[in-house]
Amino acid sequence: MGRYRPPAAPSSKYITPVGKDKLQKEHDYLWQKKRPEITRSVQEAAAQGDRSENAEYIYGKKQLREIDYRLRHLRKRLADITVVDAVPEDQERVFFGAWVSLEDEAGEIYEYRIVGPDEFDDEDEYISMDAPLAKAILKRRLDDEIVVKLPRGEKRYCISAIRYQ
After folding, report:
1. Is 89 part of a structural domain of the chain?
2. Which residues, 6 or more positions from 47, have their beta carbon under 8 angstroms from its beta carbon?
3. For 97, which DSSP code?
């Protein structure tokens, strides 16, 4: 079996203003602070002589490759994303940026916020709009019942609250 991996499906291009600021801050930190530090350390390690056995040089070059890869990703992503900062007119339905409370069959309440794929790992309550649960509740109304297919079977929820900040 080869090492070929099919390309990942393109993710949604929406993001909240807070998420965009986070990505921009990460880009600025990597470009203005971290990359120059690593570049200096690689130059110092290269000046010590034989590069083939110099662990600091090899590790520094690896770090630079990783930083450059992340910077390219951030630049492309920041150029393509659409910031959603407006509250929808119909606040009775679930759209991007909504806080949604779901009640399962056992009566437990779960609260989630639907965000873009670049920011769902910021908080435990954030879910990507590309996630199966988010896809199931988007455009639904208060008190709608939804069914989500999970590896262990189906799970039913009822939308008990929708709010926007």
Report:
1. no
2. none
3. T
